[in-house]
Amino acid sequence: MEACGITLRHRGADRDAVRDASVEVRAGEILALAGPNGSGKSTLLAGLAGDLAPRRGRVRLDGRDLASFRRRALARRIAYLPQAPAVPEGVRVEALVEHGRHAHRGLFGARGPADRAAVRDAIDALELEPLRRRALETLSGGERRRAWLAMVLAQQPELLLLDEPTAALDLRQQWEVIERLARLNRERGLTLVISLHDLGQAAGLAHRVALLHRGRLYAVAAPERALVEESLRDVFAVDARIEKVDGATQVRVRGPADPLRPL
User: Could you count the other beta carbons within 10 Å of the beta carbon of residue 160?
Assistant: First the structure.
């Protein structure tokens, strides 16, 4: 996938949320979108998913304009999970995961062997077998997030777009989700684009980081090149550095940057 100079504005808004952004998503990689709140991470992700049409520029999948795909055909290639998806009360885990198969079903929506196998595979991959008959609202935050991930995994996409998949989870639940995403990429070759608030998670998980600031792409590079002291000062207004501590990637913040550099 490739975004070519795209400018994005939400419906009813009076200004652009993302301006003139160009970024390539490489097959088999994990690309993390990082930046402060309001920097345009979620908006860029929605543009890549086709949920928000660019005012200018184009998004292409295998060289073809994203807007030229039919929705069902696109859903077979790309799965998009927003930060806070809504679901009716009482929906059970297995039913939610089965929902991911809608793009693959025939005219009358009947489930076939391939659908049942994909649902079973997704439930096993996210270790949800003991929870498959539970209603979603009875689960913990981490369990619920795993159920949503199983739904988009059952969709069997080539490209998975995730908006803040660790939001509102406790520390252990966050790292459980991060580890499962890394395993899906490593074992299945699934391409992932993930917006993340935590820079340590972005640095530890991603092959490349796209750093956004005020709706523009500041840098797109490997974590050790994108998340350097200068970029953390310019984008986040802090004096900080990324370090490895006991094998874990952490952000060491020394304090606010003074003065704040204009970009």
Answer: 23
